[in-house]
Amino acid sequence: MAKVIKKTTTKVKTPAIKKAVVKKEVNKVITTPKIEVSTSKIAKYVNKNIMISPRKLRLLVDNIKKLSPVEALTRLKFTNTKAARIMVKALQNIIADAKNNFNLDTNNLKFDLIKVDEALKIKRMDKSHGSRFARGLIQKRHSRLVIHVKGNQK
Question: What are phi and psi of 11, to 5 degrees?
């Protein structure tokens, strides 16, 4: 009988060679674009039904829209008209709103928008006027006032 010889092959394990990993620290300067944060906000005032004709209110608004709200308020306090009394209340309201609710500096406020539009009309028949006033119709005109004030936060 013949002897069977088994050949065994063994794999020779080579020692693991540790490679030295060199970490290169590169100081990269990352430049981000500068974004200017706008801290300006807009405070809004709207009154939809003022019992004065829009024409009378526009005459006053055209004079004060170039001023700052604080200067306009001091000037309107010395104007003796119904439109001025209405505008004083509106300006006091929006300046207080801008100061307390939006934390805006009252000295740097500017008008962004002042708009006077026509609101509803109350029409009445008056027979004593007869043919005058378009068949005796009397129209009581009302105004709609919109004010936007822009300013920087404190």
Answer: -85, 130
End-to-end CA distance of the chain: 108
Domain-embedded: residue 130: yes
The span from the CA of 147 to the CA of 128, in Å, is 40
Domain assignment present for residue 3? The answer is no
Range of the domain at 47: 40-152
- Provide the domain count of the chain: 1
Least confident of 14-18, 30-34, 89-93: 14-18
Encoding tokens for residue 53?
């004709």
**Higher per-residue confidence, 40 vs 121:** 121
Element (H, E) at 96: helix 82-100
pLDDT reading at 48 higher than 90: yes
Name the burial class of residue 104, with classes exposed (0-12), middle (13-18) and buried (19+) by CB atoms within 10 angstroms of its CB. buried
